[in-house]
Each structure stands twice: as structure tokens, then as C-alpha cells.
């Protein structure tokens, strides 16, 4: 899922090509902890070398991201967050038994040496708990935002020095960027309901693509290491045949060079539409009633599109925004085919971070589009209803 001018196969950021066909058993409900107010109690726990005197959990300089912040202010709620991640939330991140096990155990182990990754795990866990415990939603959301913001600062600090000692942590953290940012974009957005901040949407899109460039030199070592089970090797081009009528219409119109649309932009739009069509066809080729969608394939489109298309998105061109709105329809693909009870169970435990994001993304894009272009959103809006 991680985010060159040279085309790079998104397979390096996709999940296992042969995921298990059945959902793992959902852990039995665990007793809820007593309500924890915002006045958390700090506890002293060593993180790396033991501090001589501190009420914070300390880390090694590398774990702190090399930015001088070598302490994690560990609160009582963070122990709950880490426990929840390793017992429940990890299920949201893997579609194969091997992938889920990596998130449950190995990712946590790596996080104990890399503070930005630990913060990323805690943030996602807090977001998950906010959806499960509405009576404590605000507290969990505040903690999630705090961990996520600090994690990004620490992650940015190591991006200029990714090496063999931290590449696994960087790859794992990059896999958390989309679920964390998708949920937080709604929280940080303007207005209410399904409205999200359009700037926050583009921020995480560009961040994911930037991470792809940084991690690309380490693709082979990731494939051949323990994290290889999180990588999908089979490309979607090998299984995609047919056409999507709505995308054909886009391609026929947006591929034309006009007074305001350069040849380079038209090519970027055409390539992005072709990549999106491959994603949609792959999803349609999946067995009917399959429990989990190919989230890795869906997110792979973000890093597969060309630099030219990314620049068009950065400039908020109407064509790029419309293509992105069509992409948003993949975020809810196939949910409606599952029995209602099973669908709610899957959303609650596995796809909670995707639920409703298609509506939010299309709504944010509509706000950005000039009125005369909004007719192109009829199909994405009908899919998101």
C-alpha cells in the first residue's frame, strides 16, 4: 500500500495473492475497561534503554525518528490501545492468516524499536475503539489524532535515511497511512456528517505516493523477508478482461486534447482510467460472496497512477477530480452482496475504516468541482448512496 517517474508495479505494496477464503474467528467480547477520562495517569515503562528518572516511556533515538523526541508519553489508555490492536484491530490489516499474524505479532515487535510505528499502531487502535465505544468516542479520537500527528513528524524525519535497520518499520507504517488518514480526514474536516476536508484527502494521497518512491529501492528485501506475506506478487493486469462502460465514457472524452487540456494531461488521464478499470475488473472477477474485498488492490491504484496524473490532482483539475470520484466507488465494492448481518459483522471488525469513506470522498470532490463539471459525478454519487 505504500506510495518515480519510472512505473513501479504496485505489487510491492499489495497483500498476499492467495488470501484465505474464510474470515478468522472473531475474538469473544472482552470486558470493557473502566471509563478513562482525558486526565490519563502516566506510568513509567522503559522503551529501549531504561531512563534514570522519568515519568515518560523513553525510546532509542532511532525509535524517536531522529528528531530529538525520544520519549513516548505513555498513558494508561495506551496499554488498552496496544492490547486492543494485538487482539482485535490487527484483523483489519490482513486478508491471509499469515498476513494477520504478522500484524498481530511481528509488527508489534518491530514497533517496540521504532516509535513512529508504535504511534501508528496505537492511533489505528484508538480509531477502531472510537467506533466500538461511542460513549468514549471523543477521548479515543483525541488520542488517535495525537499519536498520528506525532507519528507523521517522526516518520518524515527518517524518510531521508531509510536503511536496512528501519525499512521494515517504514513499510509497515506506510501500510497504516491510508486507514489512519481516511478516518482522521473526516474528524479533521469542515462541517458535519459525511463532509471531509478536501485538503486532508490530497495530503494523504501525496504522502502515500511519496513513501512509494522512498521504499522502492528496498522492494526485493521486503519481498524476500518476513514481510513478504504482506506483498501480492500477481499483477492485476493478468486477471483483468472486459470493460467498464462508465470508465469508457471518461476515457473517450478525457483523452481528447483541447485548448485547456494538453497532450501530456490527456495521456495522464487515459493511463489513470486504464489502471482504474483494471482494478474494477479484478474486483468483479472475484468469487461472488467472497468475505473480504481486495483492499490491497484497491489501495494500489493510488501508487500506480503516473506522476503526471498526481500533478493534475495536485492542481485540482476537473478531470483528475472526476477520475478520483470514480475511484471512490471501489471503497464500497461488493458490500451489498453480503447478507445484512454478516455485512455488519465484517464492517464492525474488518472494514470499519472503509465504511462510509466513499460517500465522504465523493462529497469532498463535488465541493471542489466547478458546477458545469458536476454532471460527471452522477454515477459515483449513485454508487455511494
From TrEMBL:
Residues 1-69 are annotated as: Disordered. Residues 37-47 have a biased composition (Polar residues). One of its GO terms (molecular function) is DNA-binding transcription activator activity, RNA polymerase II-specific. Residues 50-61 have a biased composition (Low complexity). Residues 22-34 have a biased composition (Pro residues). It holds the Pfam family Fungal_trans_2. This is C6 finger domain protein. The lineage of its organism: Eukaryota, Fungi, Dikarya, Ascomycota, Pezizomycotina.
